[in-house]
Prior knowledge:
The chain is an alpha/beta fold. It has 2 domains: 2-112 and 223-257, 3-Layer(aba) Sandwich (Rossmann fold); 115-218, 2-Layer Sandwich (Dihydrodipicolinate Reductase, domain 2), CATH 3.30.360.10. The chain is built from 8 helices and 12 strands. The strands form 2 sheets. Strands 3-2-1-4-5-6-12 form a 7-stranded parallel sheet, with helices on both faces. It has a 5-stranded mixed sheet with strand order 8-9-7-10-11, covered by helices on one side. β4, α3 and β5 form a beta-alpha-beta unit. α1 packs across α7 and α5 (115-131) packs parallel to α6 (155-167). The protein is elongated and about 65 Å long. Nicotinamide-adenine-dinucleotide is lined by residues 6-12, 30-34, 62-65, 67, 71, 85-87, 110-113, 225.
Amino acid sequence: MKIALVGYGKMGHMIEQAARDKGHVIVCTVDLFAEDATCITNDTSQMVQAIKDSGAEGIIEFSHPASVMANLTALIPLRLPLVVGTTGWKDNLAQITEQVEQNKTALLHASNFSVGVNLFYRIVAEAARLVSQFDAYDTGLFESHHNQKVDSPSGTLLDIAKKVLENMPSKKRLITNCSQNKPESDELHLASVRVGSVPGTHTVWFDSPADTIELTHTARNREGFALGAVRALEWLSTSGLDNKPRAGVFTMDDVFSEL
Length: 259
Ligand SMILES: NC(=O)c1ccc[n+]([C@@H]2O[C@H](COP(=O)([O-])OP(=O)(O)OC[C@H]3O[C@@H](n4cnc5c(N)ncnc54)[C@H](O)[C@@H]3O)[C@@H](O)[C@H]2O)c1
């Protein structure tokens, strides 16, 4: 498949390698500054023209939260399968969904493309469903990341928390800040630490007076994100179960639900 990359930073370069390893061809790389990009521009119409000229059959966007909305608005009318890894735009999901539907095209977004993390979401959901049948267990969540990360808790921990809330009726609310009170039994406590170079560790505890069940996902590096983004574009470019080209807004949940 011929792929265009928008945002040619750390992730863009890793995605290029992962895509090449799977036999794809990177036909266009767009960036604001990266000297090795094939198109260096801050003008979205130049970006669109470069992608059209390249003959790309799909696009992967990993740029910057400040750029992503303008990029998506310009890229969607190209009507190419579009995978978005940039974070920080989900407040505008309804607007993007409307544009995708108007253009009858397909977009897939995820705050975490790692195959392992997406497996972990499903493992946690099933574990929470099972554990919720036993009153003795309380639940809490923890994550650690490198000290360059600006947001906390991580989007991934919030997604894990969502899986717990959906499957554990006794938990109804999240506490993400330091609590000055002991938590109510229906509160799910999330904690974050920023330290050193940790690529990302997420833990779920199910704790009873007798024992603890601890589930942990530990990222070793960012390769899992790159590989997951390429797999997502491959999936988005295949026909759906109805044998028609996929159309609409998808997440990694949709990819995994077809496994
Ligand atoms: N969803 C996931 O699994 C996942 C994983 C890792 C990173 N991310 C997100 O991906 C984004 C990029 O991460 P990174 O580590 O590659 O960052 P990075 O800073 O290394 O690279 C981002 C690149 O995008 C370029 N850029 C900025 N605005 C642009 C624009 N308008 N057009 C083209 N290029 C533009 C920058 O010049 C830079 O080279 C961040 O938002 C990060 O949080 C998501």
